[in-house]
Amino acid sequence: MPVDEGAPRPEGFPSDFGQGSGDADAALALRCLLGITPRDLHELIWREGSAAASVQAIMAGAAGSDNDRSFLEETTPTHVRRRLDAAGVRFALAGDPEYWPAFLRLADPPVGLFLRGRPLRLGDRRVAVVGSRRPSKLGIDAARDLGRGLAASGVVVTSGGAIGIDARAHEGALDAGGTTVAVLGSGIDVEYPATNRALLREIVQRGTLVSEYPPGVPAEPFRFPARNRLIAGLSIGVVIVEGVARSGTRSTADYASQLGIDVFAVPGPVNSPLTEAPHELIRDGARLIRGAEDLLDDLGLESGGAALASLDGLPPDEGLALAALIEPMLPDAVSRITGLSIPDTVTALIRLEVRGLVEGVGGRFQRTFRPAAQA
Amino acid sequence: MYGRVQGMTLLGVGGHPVTVEAFVGRGLPALTFTGLPGAAVQDARDRIRPAVEHAGLEWPLRRVVVNLAPGNLRKEGAGLDLPIAVSVLAATGQVPAPSLTGVVFFGELSLKGEVLPIPGVLSAAIAAARGGLPTVVVPEANAVEAAQVDGVRVVGAATLEQVVLFLRGSWHPPAIEVGPGAGWQAPAADLADVRGQEQARRALEVAAAGGHNLLLVGSPGAGKTMLARRLASILPELTHDEALEATQLHSVAGLLAGSGLLRQRPFRSPHHSISTAGLLGGGSTVFRPGEASLAHRGVLFLDELTEFRRDAIEALRQPLEDGEVVVTRAAGSVTFPARFTLIAAANPCPCGFRDDAVRMCGCRDDQRARYRGKLSGPLLDRIDLRLRVPRLTKHELLGATGGEASVVVRERVIAARERQLARYRNTGWTCNAHLPGPFARREASMTAAGERLLGDAVDASALSGRGFDRVVKVARTVADLGAAERVDVVHIAEALSYREAFEAEERRARAS
After folding, report:
1. Which residues pair with A114 in a beta bridge?
2. How far apart are CA A69 and CA A83, in angstroms?
3. Which of A332, A336, A342, A368 to mutate to test the interface with B (most CBs of B within 10 A)?
4. A361 contact B CB<8A
5. Do A272 and B390 touch (CB under 8 A)?
6. Which residue of A352, B146, B194, B336 is surrounded by the most CB atoms within 10 Å?
7. CA dist., res. A45 & res. A55, Å (int)
């Protein structure tokens, strides 16, 4: 059948796709193939009309790779299902309760999803918190604070399970006793990155792991952008904490805008490369948020967290020093601005640090991201 | 045909008297040693005869046996050349036996009969004075060194011939100019050269005043090395006894170029590729002091602390704790003094730009964690002062004022040290850094407000148990610098500001 390259493909999948056990098995087999992109697969399915017919077309050599053909010859669906059951992995197809309908609006929707841990519920409100794998201290604190604040209000925190901002957001949610969803760029049972092994295990216990990839598929760089479209698709809002200009972080935000999902960004120092992505997004119309309360406000949700600490009632020296700290500063600079002697300045700064209002970072003092959250 | 003279061998840093006996008897011409001669002494066999003949003296064409007593001690070093030659001359009647009473000989001989300079002359002279031997004959080039010791007459000889003439009473060696004791001179590197970095500069002052070890963590270009090199410039002058100890070590290591006592505190900065033996001392037969001992009474600077071999760093715990190094080898064991102030510098992370104001850090969490793991915990425990030295931005540099000169700071350091000495009279401690924890708390006699701040810091988990004692000790020093009897809030606060280096990172890691 000739394919008209120009014609837009319909959204989602044919109405009876994956219906009946035969076609469901065929859909599972399709999702296990690594030699065909989700986009090509989506096209093939629309051309052939069903999962079983698509499998036949691949066997006949019309699509996919040689590896895919040998996989389909050697493996039976029962075999795959047994392996999934052994690993405690569920498989969800479009129309299943765990298959989030927003995915169907993607140009390359996943045929199905592998899941472990707590079931995804249709009623869950999920917000993605994503950002740099090499964040600053401020970014780390912001991510953790967002994770906590969102989870405390019953929002499920979604992220990519990566190091840096992702990990802190997941951790924040778990800290607050909430739940979290990590979308992996590797096989559903592959603990990657190894640094986050303990975190990923914790998420299986108290949250959900989601992946497009069957067990055993290694993490590879080209899978991360694909993973990002699922992070965006799962969420009602996407928050960018830190990221350089051209990054995976930015791609998550782009997917969100394509899907019509709200994008939020946490601002930061204007001279830091880590704030390039959030600041650009804000210029492009993303909503600036200073923390979880702002976000919950914008989403029309109740804040479960504490309000910002009042900075009144500090002893005069400490008040002066805190007021002077408009950026990370050396004690000598604070002393010059406040007119306090250096010993008095150091005393004030250390007292503020003990109160949790100020912290020393790299030899300079700065205000903590969120005094209330740490008090 | 028997002669007997006193020589010296070096055992670690100390001189050890050796009795050299020579017997000349019948038999084929030969020179034999008994009494555990080391390799360098065996070498002397072929060196001594030409030296003697060059001096216009006669070598007996008979069998010569030289015995070195005590026989259970291995004798090392070329310093026995001279006493061996003199013993043979005594046995053959070429020098009068009575002239040898109370004289110690220490020197190496050349084939031409010159007396060559050797390491350890100061130690030999000290041992002679202690052993009640009133005269030492040493190489002329080392005479000034030996003359630092009270109670011995020093004869500096350039040739074997001079030695013989001296013993025969026909040469009167000139008195040795000890020099006016060249007073303390400011080292070239002055604290006034450092722009900005008030906190680090002050930390150097605190380290100098209380004898605290110091860790500087900062990005390349922050000025860590520049700061560290200036620590020696604010330390008090060496006392005479300290100078003797330090000079002895340098003499034994052969680092004293004909000069007298060390006047300035040593500053040693070994490269990070140094071996454990190089750092702590070692050697298979001859024991040589390591950098830790060469820094005795001065400063040991370890730049790029994380790059040093782990075993070498771990081995520093002993001198940091006991002020000495015990080197044990098959040949025996010796103790070298090694009481120094440690100053170490490190980058905050592998790329060096963690928390920098301008450049972005390119390290992953796990890389940073591995990097931090390279630092030995037990070593860090012995470092009271740890601080981050930020790389200053252009703006900050422009706003920075020049600091005080080293001489000004040094006055405060000396006054603070005197306060400590007065307080710790009869205790054996000399400075706050050496106080055991419980005593530090007692000696601090904190004000109620000071106690409260410290308590709050513990409650805010800004301070660990071990960190607590360190902060109290440092606060005591800060108070001493301010001539305060009791440790108050400002002192505690300042001490708390010196507890950060990698700890902030570790707290973050714990909190996550």
Report:
1. A91, A211
2. 20
3. A332
4. yes
5. no
6. B146
7. 9
pLDDT reading at A374 higher than 60 = no
Q: Mean pLDDT across the stretch A161-182? A: 94
Strands B2-11 and B115-116, bridge-based pairing = unpaired
Using a CB-CB distance cutoff of 8 angstroms, which residues of chain A are in contact with residue B354?
A: 362
Q: Is A171 in the B-facing interface, judged by CB distances under 8 Å?
A: yes
Number of Cβ within a 10 Å radius of residue B170: 8
Percent of chain A with pLDDT over 90: 41
Mean pLDDT estimate for chain B: 88
* SS3 of residue A265 by DSSP: strand
| Chain A residues close to B355, C-beta within 8 Å | 136-137, 361-364
The residue of B356, B360, B385, B451 whose CB has the most chain A CBs within 10 angstroms, and thus the best one to mutate to test that interface, is: B360
> Which tokens belong to A121?
């519920």
Query: Are B494 and A355 an interchain contact pair (Cβ–Cβ within 8 Å)?
Result: no
Residue A208 has pLDDT above 50, yes or no: yes
pLDDT class of B508 with cuts at 50, 70, 90: low
In terms of pTM, does the model score above 0.90? no
Cβ <8 Å between A273 and B493: no
- Look over chain A and give the mean of its residue pLDDT values, rounded to a whole number: 87
Does residue A305 register a pLDDT over 50? no
Residue A17 has pLDDT above 70, yes or no: yes
Average pLDDT over residues B144-166: 92
Find, in chain A, the residue whose alpha carbon is nearest to that of B387. A363
Asked whether the ipTM of the predicted complex exceeds the cut of 0.85, the reply is no
Which among B232, B112, B121 is positioned nearest to B162, based on CA atoms? Answer: B112
Closest residue by Cα to residue B208 from B432, B380, B427, B379: B432
| Burial class of residue B485 (count of CB atoms within 10 Å of its CB; 0-12, 13-18, 19+) | exposed
Look up residue B338 and give its two tokens. 């090694």
